[in-house]
């Protein structure tokens, strides 16, 4: 195992979290980001041995595609060493929104991921820890400040849905301009926890396969099943069977309505927030497994889109090359014909 994972384990023992506040593109190594909650002997960014075909699945009580449990061969653990962190301001004036972008430095696959936080906001250590780890696996992860610097409180006024929808739309446009329009990524992915997990459904229903190619919702709240029919891409739902805020029956209804390869993964005796806020060693294990299932779901979905995009680009380039070759042959024929005629004239002139 690489030094990165060992360093992360050592830093975890400090129980502190260093907020990433960068105004310029700078590298964040394991020495500059300490992660809380994880015990010293817990390897936060450790990917299970590649010789193991499957991860343990004893606590999953719903059927899961085998491809989501397999660990890919050839992933270099050392590649998960550097992630850049950049604080952004998207938009202008009163409509601007703060965000944090995490980018893989060594193994970047070019895919953009929009991560919608829970009610504790985009600066919460658990949210940034999760975003950091997703970026560790090759992604570009944008975490917008959906609560405008003021995480949820019981006495706060209700969030204006339209304002939040506008902020998500602005963040999506920024990612499209940054990754999709630049030809780096064919589609974006969206991940959400808790309140953000519920917004994943709304985002995909509005988008209808325009910008996003895949979604992951962790124990989403305040979901509206009536809009599920508008979703045109696969969604992975991860939750526990002991979570009253996210009824499994609602998830299954939404999954059935969406279809398109969507899946519901339910963990036995797990409550709200276990995947990104594990509170016990047992929850740590399930959180690790949930992360791997999510990672493989994203890899299968987004990488296939990249593959299709590359196939189309290759086909276009081959067609253009064929046209160019025909043009060259045509010009060569004209040149040879011209030389032949010139030679004939020269022969006649010499007679």
UniProtKB/TrEMBL annotation:
Signal sequence, renumbered to the chain: none
Domain Dienelactone hydrolase: start-end pairs: 104-299
One function term, GO molecular function aspect: hydrolase activity
Pfam family, one: DLH
Gene3D superfamilies xrefs: alpha/beta hydrolase
Cell compartments where the protein resides: Cytoplasm, Cytosol
Domain of life the protein comes from: Eukaryota
Main location: cytoplasm
Entry keyword set: Cytoplasm, Hydrolase
Any one cellular-component term (Gene Ontology): chloroplast
Family statement: Belongs to the dienelactone hydrolase family.
UniProt name for this protein: Carboxymethylenebutenolidase homolog
Source organism: Quercus suber
Taxonomic classification: Eukaryota, Viridiplantae, Streptophyta, Embryophyta, Tracheophyta
Gene: Cmbl
């Amino acid at each position: 195992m690489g030094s990165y994972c060992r360093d992360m384990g050592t830093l975890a023992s400090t129980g502190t979290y260093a907020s990433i506040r960068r105004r310029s593109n700078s590298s964040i190594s394991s020495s500059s980001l300490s992660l809380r909650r994880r015990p010293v002997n817990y390897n936060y960014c450790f990917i299970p041995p590649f010789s193991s075909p499957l991860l343990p699945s004893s606590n999953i009580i719903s059927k899961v595609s085998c491809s989501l449990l397999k660990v890919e061969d050839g992933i270099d653990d050392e590649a998960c060493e550097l992630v850049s962190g950049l604080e952004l301001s998207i938009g202008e004036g009163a409509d601007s929104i703060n965000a944090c972008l995490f980018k893989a430095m060594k193994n970047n696959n070019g895919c953009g991921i929009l991560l919608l936080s829970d009610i504790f906001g985009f600066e919460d250590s658990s949210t940034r820890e999760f975003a950091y780890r997703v970026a560790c696996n090759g992604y570009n992860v944008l975490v917008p400040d959906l609560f405008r610097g003021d995480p949820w409180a019981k006495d706060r006024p209700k969030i204006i849905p339209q304002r939040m929808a506008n902020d998500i739309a602005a963040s999506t446009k920024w990612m499209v301009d940054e990754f999709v329009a630049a030809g780096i990524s064919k589609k974006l992915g969206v991940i959400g926890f808790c309140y953000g997990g519920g917004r994943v459904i709304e985002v995909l229903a509005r988008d209808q396969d325009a910008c996003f190619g895949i979604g992951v919702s962790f124990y989403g709240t305040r979901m509206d099943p009536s809009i599920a029919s508008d979703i045109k891409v696969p969604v992975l739902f991860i939750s526990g069977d002991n979570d009253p805020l996210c009824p499994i029956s609602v998830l299954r209804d939404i999954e059935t309505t969406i279809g398109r390869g969507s899946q519901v993964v339910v963990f036995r005796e797990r409550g709200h927030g276990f995947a990104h806020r594990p509170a016990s060693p047992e929850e740590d294990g399930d959180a690790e497994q949930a992360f791997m299932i999510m990672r493989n779901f994203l890899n299968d979905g987004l990488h296939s889109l990249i593959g299709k995009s590359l196939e189309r680009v290759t086909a276009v380039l081959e067609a253009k090359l064929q046209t160019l070759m025909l043009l060259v042959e045509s010009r060569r024929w004209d040149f040879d014909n011209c030389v032949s005629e010139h030679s004939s004239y020269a022969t006649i002139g010499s007679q």
